[in-house]
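Example 5.3 — Amine oxidase domain-containing protein
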Amino acid sequence: MHYQTKVRSIRCQDRAVRGVELDDGTVVPAEAVIANASGVGTYLELTHAIPSPVRSRLRRLPLQSPGICVYLAVRHPTPPPYLRFFLPGGDAWCRLLVTPAMLAPELSHDGWYPARLIAPMDHTMAETGGVEVQTALLNRVLSETWWQDHVGEYRVIDTRIPADWGAAYHLYHNSMNPVMTARFMRAGRLAHRSPYIQGLYLAGSATHPGQWVSFCAISGILAGDCVVEDLGTC
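Solution (predicted C-alpha cells):
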C-alpha cells in the first residue's frame, strides 16, 4: 500500500499497461490499473498511449465545475422542505439550501444542526476568473437573505470554491465531470474497460453512473468486475 502517494504517469507499451510511475520516480509494475482519477484527466494527463483523434475529442469536451459550497451549523431545526431551491433571476444560476437534520434530527450537536449552501458555477467563468471570481460568488451567496431568513442563527463551519475542490481531490482542471450534453450522453460515458489501452480501467468521474459518493463506489465495483473478467481471478 502506498498512501498519500501521487502517480506521475501510467506506463504503457504497445497499447498495454506496464505499470505506474510514482511522483518520486519509482515504477510499480502492473498488468492492470484501475484509475479513479477523472477519466478525461487519466487519458490526457497520465498516459499518452491513446489515439490522437481521441485526445482531441476529449480536450474539446465542455467541463462541469463543482461550484461553491458553504458548510453551516444552524441553531434551530429548520422547517420543510429538506431541499430549498432559490432562483435569483436574470443570468444568475440557482442556489440550494440542504438541511439534512430535518430528516435526521440525531445529527444535532449541542443544539446546532448541519446545513449546506450550494451554488453551481460556469466552469469557464470559474477558470478564467480564478479564485477572486469564485470567492466573490461565495460571498454573494452568503450575503443573500433567502436562506438566512429560513435558518435564523447560524455559524459558517467551512467553505469550498472550485479551486479548493480541485486542490483537495486532484480534479482535472477543477472540474467534476464533463457536461452531460445530449451528444455526450448519446455517445455514452467513458467505458470502465479502456478500448484504447489493454489493462487500463476507469472509475469515478466521466464513467457510469457518474459523480457523487454512491455513484463513484458503484463505478469502482463495475471497473473491478472488468478486471476480474479479464484476468480470471478475484
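Remark. The chain is about 35% helix and 25% strand.
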